[in-house]
Specification:
alpha/beta, 5-stranded parallel β-sheet, 7 helices, 17% strand, binds 4'-phosphopantetheine
Length: 181
């Protein structure tokens, strides 16, 4: 059975990676599909091409995962591509109501089933939006996202990260100077 893991992936997080790893063990093939809306460009930090590039790098080690994109209704994509099952990750109860609504809608308008996979609890607080926020201040996001996402975020916020590094170095030198004196 094949499956589709749809999302915005702006960028892919360790929580997404956890769900994908579990899905890839259950399904024969999983397509990670960036759903995008041409009328809503500018809403994302990363362009569609950048998100696809990050996804390709982050999923290169799977032999049954591929990456795709679609700008339309998920049910149309599922029908056109004969893709089987939709996979969505659940982090906490707070995700449930929204996901339940979408799953029911997709079944009603497209007769497509959704399978939910629970992300490990250590990722229950991680979301793409929080990671974007932390990175915008130069915070440490290395645990929360795969390396491809972390590198892309550090590139975008290179000036902020450089500033923090300089501050850290300065503090370290001051402390060492103090100890020596
Ligand atoms: O990562 P996200 O933002 O939670 O993903 C939500 C997504 C992209 C899967 C959902 O918004 C979606 O399927 N969008 C495509 C348009 C669509 O089919 N809408 C009807 C269901 S809300």
């Amino acid at each position: 059975m094949n499956a589709v893991f749809p999302g915005s992936f702006d960028p892919i997080t360790s929580g997404h990676m956890d769900v994908l790893t579990r899905a890839a063990k259950i399904f024969d093939h999983v397509t990670v599909t960036v759903m995008h809306n041409a009328r809503k460009t500018g809403r994302h930090l990363f362009s569609l091409e950048e998100r696809l590039e990050i996804l390709r790098e982050a999923t290169a080690h799977f032999d049954n995962v591929s990456v795709d994109s679609f700008g339309g209704l998920l049910v149309d994509y599922m029908r056109q591509q004969q893709k089987g099952i939709i996979i969505r990750g659940l982090r906490a109860v707070s995700d449930y109501e929204y996901e339940l609504q979408i799953a029911h809608l997709n079944r009603q308008i497209g007769e497509v089933e959704t399978v939910f996979i629970m992300a490990a609890t250590r990722w229950s607080f991680v979301s793409s939006s929080m990671v974007r926020e932390i990175a915008s201040y130069g915070g440490d996001i290395s645990e929360m996202v795969p390396r491809a996402s972390a590198n892309a975020l550090r590139r975008i916020h290179a000036d902020v990260y450089a500033e923090r590094e300089a501050e850290k170095l300065e503090t370290q030198l001051r402390v060492e100077g103090g100890t020596a004196g």
